[in-house]
Amino acid sequence: MATTHPSLTNEEVARRGDEIYNRLLRAQLEPDEKGKIVAIDVDSTDYEVGTDVLDTAHRLRARRPDAQVYLLRVGDRVLCHIRSPRRIHPA
Question: Can you give the pTM of this predicted structure?
């Protein structure tokens, strides 16, 4: 596969991905796909839905090798939540 060089900043990919999701995909996906992962090519608006982040992104890239991919969880504002680890205090 050819190496791609992204032409957009991470912020622009996120802005476009959110806009595509809200304008074209939200109403279509949220009733039946809530909680699943959606990978969106922000250039073509092509997308893929799945349950695994890497598999979903790879399936989109198989169709669109030069895709600039934006990932999110259907029905949620974030893909995942990151928590700081609990501190364990010795007894």
Answer: 0.80
